[in-house]
Amino acid sequence: MSEPILSLEAVETDIAQYHILKGVSLSVPRGQVTMLLGRNGVGKTTTMRTIMGLLRNKAGQIRFDGAEISGELASSRCRAGIGFVPEDMGIFSALTVEENMILAAVSGAPDRARLDWLFTVFPPLKTFWKAPAGTLSGGQKQMLSIARAMIEDRKLYLIDEPTKGLAPAIVSTMVGALRELKRQGASILMVEQNFAVARALGDHCVVMDDGRATWSGAMADLATDHALQERLMGLSMEAG
Ligand SMILES: Nc1ncnc2c1ncn2[C@@H]1O[C@H](COP(=O)(O)OP(=O)(O)OP(=O)(O)O)[C@@H](O)[C@H]1O
User: Fold this and answer.
1) Sorted alphabetically, which keywords does the UniProt record give (predicted)?
2) Is 16 in the pocket of ligand 1 (CB under 6 A)?
3) Chain segment 155-177, per-residue pLDDT in tens
4) Ligand 1 mean position to 20 CA, how many Å?
5) Which ligand 1 atom lies nearest to the CA of residue 42?
6) Does 42 sit in the ligand 1 pocket, CB within 6 Å?
């Protein structure tokens, strides 16, 4: 098996005086979708922010595409090929959709064909191309946030709760777009609280509890084992 695109080994991160990540070890295989699951407050977002370099790990290793990146700035990690869709979406409300997209393309002007493809995946972005991003609906802002990460081919996509707070119809658009990204062979690490979405997209999953990764395995194994779900996450989620 080829080397994972990303691996964490005993990663520890503090936020202020709090010890949040207590030794996270996980790996993300190339060309597959890995779901990061767990109850509220166990450290999923902190893990994503630590991988991106927005928080510094005080111990452990983060290897991305064959290199140790713990010492790198977030901007270098972005240039090295990590695309990040943060939980708060990270878009610029006062700028237009177009300007938001241009700023997201780190290696120059956005590619026309890639933009056309994104317009087919997220049609509202074309409709509101010249509108300030702040005027978009919640679902359209989430589309913009994901499209910004997809504007260039990234080696790894980190996507934090892309369906949070969205109406069911928008959730299906989002799942369709992420399926499209998956179909192209993207490597993705995604936090997702909606288990039906996690099951629809995930190949693998890593479950966290209290600042550590406590289980990893095939999504299909977790999806069909309610007792395992109960043990790992405290509730059995209808895999619906
Ligand atoms: N700025 C902060 N200051 C203090 N504690 C924080 C801060 N940010 C996060 N935490 C704490 O870190 C822990 C992990 O938070 P994190 O957001 O990583 O969890 P999560 O698994 O993503 O949760 P959720 O599913 O609710 O988003 C929580 O106990 C949270 O209260």
Assistant:
1) Amino-acid transport, ATP-binding, Nucleotide-binding, Transport
2) yes
3) 999 999 988 888 888 888 889 88
4) 8
5) 21
6) yes
The alpha carbon of 167 and the centre of ligand 1 are apart by a number of angstroms equal to 24
CATH number at residue 208: 3.40.50.300
Indicate whether 147 belongs to any domain.
Answer: no
Span 39-55, pLDDT tens digits: 889 999 999 999 999 99
Residue 50 in contact with ligand 1 by CB distance below 6 A: no
Residue 68: burial class (beta carbons within 10 Å; 0-12, 13-18, 19+): exposed
Q: Is residue 128 domain-resident?
A: no
Structure tokens at 189: 């690490």
Residue 66 lies in a domain: yes
Q: Is the CB of 223 under 6 A from ligand 1?
A: no
This complex has an ipTM of 0.93
Judge whether 142 lies within some domain.
no
Overall domain count for the chain: 1
